[in-house]
Amino acid sequence: MWSVIEDAAVEQLVTAGFSPVDSRVLTAMVSRRYARERLKLIDVLSGHIGLENVSEISGAVDRLTARGFLTHVPYSGRHLLSVSPDYASHLRNSGLTDAADSLESLMWAPVTRFQSLGPMTEPGTLSSFLQAVSGAQRVIRLPFFSSSAEIEGIEALEQRCRAGVELRILLGSPKTIKEIRGPSHAARARRSIESWTAKTRRWPNTEVRLAQSVEDVEYGSSMSIDGRLLRMDVHEPLAERSLAGEMLLVHETGGNLIRLFDKTFDEIWERSLPVKGFARLRRGVASWRWSIVAATLLAASVTVPDSVWQDLASGAAVTAIFAAFDESHGRLRTVWQRMTNAST
Fold this sequence. Notes:
This protein is 54% helix and 16% strand. The chain folds into 3 domains: 4-108, Orthogonal Bundle (Arc Repressor Mutant, subunit A), CATH 1.10.10.10; 114-279, Endonuclease Chain A (Endonuclease, Chain A, 2-Layer Sandwich), CATH 3.30.870.10; 288-343, no CATH class. The chain has an 8-stranded mixed sheet, with helices on both faces. The two termini are 49 Å apart. The chain is an alpha+beta fold. The chain contains 14 helices and 11 strands.
């Protein structure tokens, strides 16, 4: 998302004769203070609205480097691309004083790491969802409590999936929603699951999973995009509905907060239950692969006649058992916590 002063800088550069892509790349480099290796830089820039074409970005980076607006900075044996310290002088020497002044104003502006979009029910909060989804390039992490698929921006979600973007939709299971909202909401959770399953049945790159605990649905109504943007619905889920919350928008400069959300979401995603049967079977096999291997080897060590092969199977089975325990200890801990909580 571009700020007002960034849009003004882009306009000044276009007026000065720069192409729209070159103008946006240079503005982003000055405003966001990027310093990345070339391929990573192009990938990061492709997340900006108006910079979706990687080949165009690559050409713009090369042109701006050749003209002295971008420069290579040595870093730990590598070379990072960053904006040249003399970029404003180059512009002024070419008689482009207004463009130089406009870009320098970005350097002086404070870095905006996050902003409040206001209450969840504000029109601006809804329109910003559509804008954020439309700029997705790689992956959208989208947790809900029990919302149906009839949401604003559903067409944009489908469009991005068909463009190759991975969409991970996390819903609360009926049992979980019943715990957090009350018995009457279990039916609503089932309708939500049916709604999203039907809506996304023919969407590529899309999966719907069900969170199995109250703690795992607390991020509902939030969303992260490509590891560079986070929409966080801030509220008290144990006492309030998600629509009572306030939407915070975290920009790429708040990367540590975005990565924390993504890491937590991915951990929840791994232990959540896929809705589709084949995906559920695939997850079950993947989750218990070492346990399956251990059981198979134990059976082989018992049935194989006394020989070197039996010793080999027994040794491999012991190794697999340790791997199975390491693989399953998180799930076993969760089961133990639920049992102890139920008994208190």
